[in-house]
Amino acid sequence: MLKIAEHKDPQHSFKAEKFLSAEKLYLPLSQHTGKPSKICVEKKQTVRKNQLIAKSDGFISASLHAPVKGEILEIKKHFHPKFGKIKSIILKTELDNNQDNSLNHSFDLEKTAKEDILTAIAEAGVVGMGGAGFPAQVKLNPPKKIDTLIINGCECEPYLASDHRLMVENLEEIFKGIGVISKLVRPKEIIFAVEENKEEAIKKINYFINTKKTNLPKVKLKILKSRYPQGGEKQLIYSLTKRKISGKMLPLDLGCIVDNVATCFAIYEAAYLRQPLTRRIVTFCGDALVKPKNIWLNIGTTLGELIDKKIIEFKEKPKKIIFGGPMTGDTVVNLSTPILKTTSGVLFLEKLPKEEEESACIRCGRCINYCPMDLMPLEYVKMVKNKKYKNLENYQIKDCIECGCCSYICPAQIPVLDYIKLGKEKIK
Ligand code: SF4
Ligand code: SF4
What we know:
alpha/beta, Rossmann fold, globular
């Protein structure tokens, strides 16, 4: 794994602000791994806050809800940070909206059956919020015995601070979410993993554990060195348990489940409050901004609206906008691109690293040495350049987690990850 510049300050210490007044929300039907959700509203229909607007469509899929009250303006293709333009529900919101239609009572988890908790999590549209968006109810109903539950508070990508703020400001809810997961998967051990650069969160977690503010006796805090891509499921399992995932194995094949802290928070809201996943903290940062910020946003809020309302302000026109972190994020060009359930941050860059020309591979082997999945990145480059796409699968290209370490480390400036993405596209 790599030690790279963190760029976490000052956003690490900025309290998450609230912004709830987007006039229009753009809600793509794919904000998760699996089949897109199925629309269950019509144009011009009035919807309540938290109303289901698109149902989960199959075993691996997730439901989508209206973050606020409003009217369905249109259902049409709209920008998505990863997939170009895809079918989306456009909601014209009612700005004077203080009313909360969620069921405002807390459920007694002790008396609630496991199946009912899983149903509540599925109905709330909870997905993994660390990046991939895997539907939570599927992960939390494993077909095998789980001995280790890992709570991922690493947030190893440079710049991002949303998980850190959530741990500092909403730790009690995160622990309640961990309690729900623990009830569902009954692990022998719970490890809360945080990188050493999150001092404020570490203090809080220690306090919670030591003062028994949590009734989860099995939680152990593990402070890890800041390394990239330590927050990846497979790398984190290895760092903590020395169990190695290879090939098509899943964490549960090694008796592990990994859940991000934001997902734990959403699970708490779903299980205790029947509150669907409709908002999250997003970090806005980068040298083009006047000031970095962490903001609670409804999903579907566009960058354009935040800029128009001066919620985020530029000191320089950004040359590049990235949804996510600089290592794994997606470059976007349209300011109408909305925040999704999986958007932990948006990066606005004015100064870009000098583009150096790609030169020939010198076979130094650094990309192999630093690949956290033990792959052969240089071979992928060769195969894609020679259009030998069929060979890519023999070299396990599908195991690549697209962490970008190979591109970052390559002395010949070869954009290795770009070749890998192209190769993956070709074999699809
Ligand atoms: S790091 Fe770059 S130059 Fe070195 S082997 Fe890999 S692709 Fe070739
Ligand atoms: S090959 Fe994939 S997993 Fe390996 S370093 Fe490159 S991007 Fe990361």
